[in-house]
Amino acid sequence: MRMSFQEKLGQIVIISLLALLCLSVIYPFLYMMAVSLNEGTDAAKGGVYLWPRAFTWINYEIVLGNSVIRHAYLITILRTVVGTITGMLVTLIAAFGLSYRLLPMRKYLLGYVLVTMLFNGGLVPFYIQLHNLGLVNSFWVFIIPGMFSAWNMFVMLKFIQGIPEALIESAELDGASPVRILFQLIVPLSKPMLAALGLFTAVGHWNDWFAGAFYVTDQSLIPVQTFLQQLLSASDLSTVLGSNSNQEALARGAQMQNITLMSIKMAVVMVSAIPILCVYPFLQKYFVKGVLIGSVKG
């Protein structure tokens, strides 16, 4: 079927707009990578946009070689792994339980969960609650508050309700317990949905700096995103990196003279962003299939 002139013009306009949108998203990433791979003093002169003019690995050597950053990176990885697994498990169990239509007070429980999704008590009462629970200045302040997500629970609930009831009833007739039905029937059929929501949960944990900035005072417990936020507001490297930056400056001599605070910032940004970006291509096929299918079934 031949397209008319108006249809061809419309496709050209759409493709051009999408290309500009992609460029606006990719260019900042390329710029930060170029600055992070460039000597800091040279990049400060300007003119570095897409490719490093004075290539060097020194910025990444400083970032990856600093014990403060490595420890913050470890906290972020642990938080992302533990928080994603526990959050998905608790939310899935809640969704599976509420999927039973004969569950006593099911409507009231769903309404209660919906209210928590629409309203919250505020930051100060939440902090007081965390303090009373002994979670402030603890690693578990990153895990326990995020173990349940009302939005994810409703998505999981709609997805589970879309599974034919005959499958669940046949499993019950064969003597399968609810736990066995959940992990041997529901979970295998829900892999696309779990993969999509799991990725969103992991990205939320990885990118969160708020909890580390307001609920943790111990510098050894801050995640890498909170460290990056501190670095962005710092006036010099020693403020955040501590005495290690002075020792490294003496050890590296002339190389350290080419480092600036901006070049270190860009290197930290790249180090904190690249790992989670590498996960997206492997789970991209699950996005639409996993999230939208739960919203159209019912």
From TrEMBL:
Q: Where is the ABC transmembrane type-1 domain?
A: 73-277
**Which domain of life, per UniProt?**
Bacteria
Pfam families attached to this UniProt entry:
BPD_transp_1
Classification via Gene3D superfamilies = MetI-like (1.10.3720.10)
Which GO biological process categories is it annotated with? Answer: transmembrane transport
List the membrane topology term(s): Multi-pass membrane protein
The subcellular location is:
Cell membrane
Can you tell me where the transmembrane regions are? Answer: 12-30, 72-96, 108-128, 140-160, 181-203, 262-283
Q: Which InterPro entries does UniProt cross-reference here?
A: MetI-like (IPR000515), MetI-like_sf (IPR035906)
Keywords attached to this entry: Cell membrane, Membrane, Transmembrane, Transmembrane helix, Transport
PROSITE patterns documented for this protein: ABC_TM1
**Principal subcellular localisation of the protein:** membrane
A GO cellular component annotated for this chain's UniProt record is:
plasma membrane
The family assignment reads: Belongs to the binding-protein-dependent transport system permease family.
Q: What is this protein called?
A: Sugar ABC transporter permease
Lineage, please?
Answer: Bacteria, Bacillati, Bacillota, Bacilli, Bacillales
